[in-house]
């Protein structure tokens, strides 16, 4: 805190001595609510070690962790399971087609099929990379 106070004082003196733009320090957020949680001794120690290792207080650690949590409801999970199942089925079918194309490499049809397989693979990769973002 002392370093921040010295910086503010230095900025104020610079402002008085020159026509520089005054920078204001952000105000500290006043937190007045508390939440109590029961932990085992080992859980508490684990949290303390994690907080200390990150250079945070336990409160800061919990606030940061809660900010990263994504809540899903049962319908979202069911939709994700169904999507994963469908993508797996498509992948199995693609493997069968690829096996056929590798068996008949010399024909022009196989070359065309491999081209389509690559396009389908890219579309599937794009689909699986966006499924967690919805």
Nearest-integer average pLDDT? 78
Calculate Rg over CA atoms.
Answer: 29 Å
For the biggest sheet, the summary is:
none
Succession of helices and strands: HHHHH
Distance between the termini: 41 Å
Structural class: mainly alpha
Helix fraction, binned, reads 55-70%
Q: Looking at the chains present, what oligomeric state does this protein adopt?
A: single chain
Q: Globular, elongated, flat, extended or rod-shaped: what is the shape?
A: elongated
Total E-strand runs: 0
Given as residue ranges, the uncertain stretches (5+ residues, pLDDT < 50) are: 10-15
Strand content: under 5%
Number of helices: 5
At a glance:
With 134 residues, the chain is mainly alpha-helical. The protein is built from 5 helices and no strands. The chain starts with a helix and ends with a helix.
């Amino acid at each position: 805190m002392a370093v921040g106070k010295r910086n503010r004082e230095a900025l104020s003196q610079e402002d008085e001595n020159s026509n520089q733009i005054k920078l204001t320090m952000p105000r500290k957020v006043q937190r007045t609510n508390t939440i109590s949680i029961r932990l085992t001794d080992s859980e508490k120690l684990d949290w303390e070690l994690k907080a200390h290792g990150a250079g945070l207080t336990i409160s800061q650690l919990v606030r940061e962790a809660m900010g990263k949590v994504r809540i899903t409801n049962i319908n979202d999970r069911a939709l994700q399971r169904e999507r994963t199942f469908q993508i797996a089925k498509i992948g199995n079918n693609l493997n069968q087609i690829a096996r056929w194309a590798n068996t008949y490499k010399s024909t022009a049809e196989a070359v065309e099929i491999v081209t389509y397989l690559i396009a389908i693979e890219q579309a599937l990769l794009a689909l699986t990379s966006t499924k967690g973002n919805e």
